[in-house]
Known about the structure:
Layout: H1 3-6, H2 10-58, H3 63-71, H4 77-86, H5 98-148, H6 162-219, H7 224-256, E1 264-267, H8 268-276, H9 280-285, E2 289-294, E3 299-302, H10 304-320, E4 327-335, E5 338-345, H11 377-387, E6 391-397, E7 401-409
Parallel strand pairs: 2-4
Antiparallel strand pairs: 1-3, 4-5, 5-7, 6-7
Helix pairs in contact: 2-3, 2-5, 6-7, 7-11, 8-10, 10-11
Amino acid sequence: MTPAHILRDRTLRRFAVFLALIAAALPAAALAFSLLAQRTAQAMLLERDGAVASALLAQGMAENDIAAALAASEVSGAGRALLARIGRTAATPGLLLPELAGYRQAVLPAALAAAGLLAALLLGGALVFARAQAARLAGAERLLHRYAEGDFSARLPRDAEGPLGSLFAAAEELATMLQAKTEAEHRARQFLKQTIADISHQLKTPLAALGLYQEIIAAEPDNADAVRAFAGKAGDALLRMESLIQAMLKITRLDAGSIRFAPAACPLPDLAGRAVRDLLTRAEREGKRIQLEGDPALTLWCDPDWTAEALGNLVKNGLDHTAAGGLVQVTWRHTPGMVQVQVADNGSGIAPEDIHHIFKRFYRGRSGPDARGAGLGLPLARAIVEGQGGAVTVQSTPGQGSVFAVSFPDGPDGLTEL
């Protein structure tokens, strides 16, 4: 970590500026102390020379001789011997020259005051910096505790730079991941709860019917016609339950992302034929027609099994809402960049207040002669198509019919593989 990165932190930068000012103040204090010591020493030496001159004048010594003596700079052996005889040497025990004592009294307090002031400033600045950093870290610690408890309403400061800013950014990234994981787990729990509730609600009616049919059969075991009739109804209820459970399982797997599509080039005539194969008998029995029309050479890039099921659900929806003599038409065409398959019927149509809800699970519109469906065919069809990167749209006029358009990207590049 470079010094430049460290100094990007505002608090660290301020503390560094403070230290630089203290460092700059040290030479200034030393210079001021040196000037003070020089002036004090000069004043004391002049005072001493004055005392010596005064004493010599009192002894009658000529002024010229006194001036020459004060101006002398060399120390002779006789002079040293004289000082030794009167006890003024550095080796004399307990000797503290008056001049030295005065010098100490004048200079030492100033030196101690300057050193104390600089030390107090340095200590105070360090304490302010440490307190500021401790406050920032304490605030971050409180937020991290809130993150751990699942509260992400507040965030760490995002304007911090330097080492602490990098730490905050890493903690924020971790908190974002934790929040995403928590939300995903919540959605998964809600999804599972809703799925179980939906299945339970939809199974109540056929289960109750099965119980009733069983009671009737048990009550009249010798009535062959009744046994046969209610056994058939029980079989229909079981088929309805099986269809419902299979549809719910498929939608749940699609929503959970556990379905992996296997795309391939599918000739549209074959794909449309697979979609309506199991519905032709029903259409004939109900007096309705299913018509296939389109370019026989056109190919759709998709998962053939799942896409055929999606188209089959759209065709089944058309049969459910078409009266006897009606027509369900499956057509396909190529548009710029897209391949589109349309499933149109001339049935009851969709009411304007219903058209925005028809792809919701278990939703059944108020129009139409047939209410046998469970409301899962259209949601399953849309999940399959959108899971492959396609789209489903619908246009409808009440009393005239509906047109469902399934659009896929042209070629394998636009297809989503799950």
